[in-house]
Amino acid sequence: MSSIENFAVVGASGTVGIPITTALLSAGFHVTAITSSTSTSTSTFPPSVTIARVNYHTALVARFMPSEFGIDLAGCCDTQIGALLGQKREIIEYLGKLAGKYDWFTWTALSTGSFIDWLQYFVSHFTAYIHIVLKPTDMFEMHFENKMARIYDSGNKLYYPSTLSFVGKSVAAVLKKPAETANKYLTVASFTTSQREVLKIVEEMGERFQFIPGETSNLEIIGDEKMARGDGDAFVEYLIRHVFGDGAGGAIEDNAAGLLGLEEEDLRTVVKRVLSEL
Ligand SMILES: NC(=O)c1ccc[n+]([C@@H]2O[C@H](COP(=O)([O-])OP(=O)(O)OC[C@H]3O[C@@H](n4cnc5c(N)ncnc54)[C@H](OP(=O)(O)O)[C@@H]3O)[C@@H](O)[C@H]2O)c1
């Protein structure tokens, strides 16, 4: 399989698009940022990025990476969150069919777990909002102004988050290994951890939080009520239930970081960085 040199990023100005673009540039790829002709984004890109404003149309693409970057679809088939992610599942099936039909087409999907950076993201961008409600984060619910942290269920359920920079590096690593990653759904993560493990590290760094116990058992009902009202925010309840609720699953079974030649990150270092950026 020939090597990949050029990669187009759709949504390069988005939450995931920015670290992916950064990592691709660092790894030496030529990046084209594809933005819709109707986009209102005011994002700017490094000078080496080619910007293409397009009406989306067909193109010959040797490797397609869908906008996956979330929880492992195989691990949530029979859950409400799994149902909400049905379109992502359909895309993977469709890509499989295309790869079977065209020998020039390949795909790779990356499940990356939740983004641990979003603690910082929520606090810096939605401070007013989290004053009003306890906004869930990917570490756990933390109310920084009042030093309150919500721990769901036992807090010991394992989950596998990634940093946004790790997501970017993983995409670049996939493209550096086109043969090994062709037509695969891979799961990567910065590390496997639990709410209590993260909180312990936060406290060892001198932060003190009041705990608010949270139950995930009724979150599906709350989510279902929201869905009945047409409120897609039900995603949050379903996600918390799936990621933090006690029960089976949680630990990453086969971290593809090894296949991609990446090392897992150090949890303590990441928590320290996220806290320093608040
Ligand atoms: N694991 C996690 O914790 C987590 C968290 C958030 C997101 N995600 C996943 O990451 C992926 C990307 O999410 P994101 O938050 O980065 O997205 P985003 O910031 O909402 O959107 C990124 C950009 O995509 C472009 N875009 C939006 N809709 C589009 C469409 N229908 N067709 C083509 N381009 C479109 C827009 O760029 P232009 O205006 O330039 O066209 C937009 O700025 C999704 O699959 C999402 O589920 C995972």
From TrEMBL:
GO molecular function: oxidoreductase activity
UniProtKB keywords: NADP, Oxidoreductase
Residue ranges the record marks as coiled coil: none
Domain of life of the native organism: Eukaryota
InterPro entries, A to Z: NAD(P)-bd_dom_sf (IPR036291), NmrA/Isoflavone_reductase-like (IPR051609)
Name of the protein in its database record: NmrA-like domain-containing protein
PANTHER family with a match to the protein in the record: NMRA-LIKE DOMAIN-CONTAINING PROTEIN-RELATED, NMRA-LIKE FAMILY PROTEIN
